[in-house]
């Protein structure tokens, strides 16, 4: 397994502003891949089931206050505590569809004014996604979608800054998908792009690490 060239699952990340449709599209993508006979799982960050995740959840619902750097490091720790399980799942051939990942970590914290390189530093060495599907929606449109749920970052002005920060993070694994299209069209596009990557990983693309 160490050479990383054997058949493996793909690490597919969905990113986007709050209310961009990531969560429902992640579930649809999972069903499509499973329907085609692929082994796949749906993950999400923050993973609120761990003790670190519970601290994050309390912060997001404004039940606790934390310094901006402290919460950034907790989000990062929440990914680190899942890294080895993530690697073993991928190596055993399971594709992971991940609803938010390191790009959320860097975009949301740098939107608060923290230095981007500082934000990336604790994320160095996490597994790099094979594909980042960015559900692209103007912040104003996202805000119109049934209202925000009352969590800490669900404010239009802040989401505008997050959108700018996301755009600065684009890399070769990144694909924009217009999130204002009908749900079925988005679903089809995501499935087509994802399938190309799942196939590429099956024929032996090695795993790599983030932000290097
Ligand atoms: P969720 O609504 O997808 O559960 O995400 C919770 C909020 O946390 C969302 O506003 C994005 C934000 N977030 C960060 O600030 N840093 C991170 O690393 C992650 C994964 C999410």
UniProtKB/TrEMBL annotation:
GO terms for molecular function: ATP binding; dTMP kinase activity; nucleoside diphosphate kinase activity. Keywords: ATP-binding, Kinase, Nucleotide biosynthesis, Nucleotide-binding, Transferase. One of its GO terms (biological process) is dTTP biosynthetic process. Pathway: Pyrimidine metabolism; dTTP biosynthesis. It is an enzyme of class 2 (transferase). Residues 14-189 form the Thymidylate kinase-like domain. One of its GO terms (cellular component) is nucleus. Its EC number is 2.7.4.9. Belongs to the thymidylate kinase family. This is Thymidylate kinase. It comes from Turnera subulata. The chain holds residues 43 to 254 of 255 of the full protein.
